[in-house]
Amino acid sequence: MKKKPLIITCFTVLSILVIAAFLKIGIKPTISYNKSMLADNQNSFETIAKACMEYHKKNAAADADEVCLYTIDKNANNLVCCHNWQYYLTQEQRQAFITVKSVFRLDHQSLEYLYVNNDFVVFGIINGRASFIYSPYNKKPDFVNSPKGDEDNIFVEKITNNWFYACK
Fold first, then answer.
1. What SS3 string covers the chain?
2. 114-147: per-residue pLDDT in tens?
3. I want to staple 99 with a disulfide (CB 3.0 to 4.6 A). Which of 10, 44, 104, 137 is the partner?
4. HEC-encoded secondary structure of 98-137
């Protein structure tokens, strides 16, 4: 007699776990984005990402986990790093920054900063809720803003080779 309620309880719990797992697989980002923004301007985004990684590898400490914050000056002439490094941009890089800054919109915000380490370049916004992330090794990020960030409940989606979208 006691086996029947136990079987029903186990079946109910198992059903709830299966449904919860199935719903988790289908999670959608809480902040929408336009894939074509990056896809239509991928060359400009990659020009910036590769330039930042090159500067970072030349000047950052040997520590591969070091994360540097980069910004672009008002006239898009210089890339400025938090370590007071300043890089004069080539005409191609300057045009790429102008293009990206003109099309970049995530969560109704414009491009604010770039976090760079040896594995990722993060194109971030001021409120930190979403980003585009470049990975030269096609490694899926487990963060939204910085590889050193400790973030839970994030959504990460691969957009194309080497490019991901992440949001909280």
1. CCHHHHHHHHHHHHHHHHHHHHHHHCCCCCCCCCHHHHHCCHHHHHHHHHHHHHHHHHHCCCCCCCCEEEEECCCCCEEEECCCCEEECCHHHHHHHHHHHHHCCECCECCCEEEECCCCEEEECCCCCEEEEECCCCCCCCCCCCCCCCCCCCEEEEEECCEEEEEC
2. 999 889 999 999 999 999 999 999 999 999 988 7
3. 44
4. HHHHHHCCECCECCCEEEECCCCEEEECCCCCEEEEECCC
Place of tokens 């400790």: 150
Amino acid identity for residue 70 in this structure: Y
User: What is the tens place of the pLDDT at every residue in 64-81?
Assistant: 567 888 887 766 677 888
